[in-house]
């Protein structure tokens, strides 16, 4: 809460200062404050001019920070070729597997674009429940307004997975990998094995 209040106050200071600069344009002198998350550059310091373009950028940045600073939930969408699981639903947190490493998404997460790795997405809903959904591949997009979209090639609730069927899929994929004769066939079979291994792990 303290960090949230600090972030909100910083955003308010930036908005006030930048808006004043934009409104006054090129006055002879003005009190100017410029601060970021990691450094304070000016605090009520007299300066001769700040370009309107810089002021506009400051207003945009500060407004974005203020909007993100108050967020404690995020609009979440999860859809696949076979089902839409969430559509702009408020959730608390989403844990995702990606090729750059598994990570959790909370409100105010930095804008991100990542590729889904075969594995389990865990969605923590506002009422306290959590849902686990297996995904084969896809994309993760975290937007500047804290909204999150996950588009999966294939997705199924973990509790609907059959462990025995998953093992059969893995065995078949391994067999196809062993018998693959071309580089293309080997690459495709290797992907199938990786998905099947993640499926077995999720179903177990």
Automatic annotation (TrEMBL):
Domain ATP synthase F1 complex delta/epsilon subunit N-terminal: 75-155
Coiled coil (residue ranges): none
UniProt key word Ion transport: yes
UniProt domain F1F0-ATP synthase delta subunit C-terminal: residue ranges: 161-202
This protein's UniProt keywords: Acetylation, ATP synthesis, CF(1), Hydrogen ion transport, Ion transport, Membrane, Mitochondrion, Mitochondrion inner membrane, Transit peptide, Transport
GO cellular component, one term: mitochondrial inner membrane
SUPFAM superfamilies in alphabetical order: Epsilon subunit of F1F0-ATP synthase C-terminal domain, Epsilon subunit of F1F0-ATP synthase N-terminal domain
Protein name, entry field: ATP synthase F(1) complex subunit delta, mitochondrial
Function, as annotated: Subunit delta, of the mitochondrial membrane ATP synthase complex (F(1)F(0) ATP synthase or Complex V) that produces ATP from ADP in the presence of a proton gradient across the membrane which is generated by electron transport complexes of the respiratory chain. ATP synthase complex consist of a soluble F(1) head domain - the catalytic core - and a membrane F(1) domain - the membrane proton channel. These two domains are linked by a central stalk rotating inside the F(1) region and a stationary peripheral stalk.
Presence of the UniProt keyword Mitochondrion in the record: yes
Localization in the cell: Mitochondrion inner membrane
Gene: LOC103511460
Gene Ontology terms for molecular function: proton-transporting ATP synthase activity, rotational mechanism
InterPro entries: ATP_F1_dsu/esu_C_sf (IPR036794), ATP_synth_F1_dsu/esu (IPR001469), ATP_synth_F1_dsu/esu_N (IPR020546), ATPD_C_metazoa (IPR048937), ATPsynth_dsu/esu_N (IPR036771)
Domain of life the protein comes from: Eukaryota
Family from the record: Belongs to the ATPase epsilon chain family.
The species this protein was found in: Diaphorina citri
Subunit structure, interactors included: Component of the ATP synthase complex composed at least of ATP5F1A/subunit alpha, ATP5F1B/subunit beta, ATP5MC1/subunit c (homooctomer), MT-ATP6/subunit a, MT-ATP8/subunit 8, ATP5ME/subunit e, ATP5MF/subunit f, ATP5MG/subunit g, ATP5MK/subunit k, ATP5MJ/subunit j, ATP5F1C/subunit gamma, ATP5F1D/subunit delta, ATP5F1E/subunit epsilon, ATP5PF/subunit F6, ATP5PB/subunit b, ATP5PD/subunit d, ATP5PO/subunit OSCP.
Pfam families found in the cross-reference section: ATP-synt_DE_N, ATPD_C_metazoa
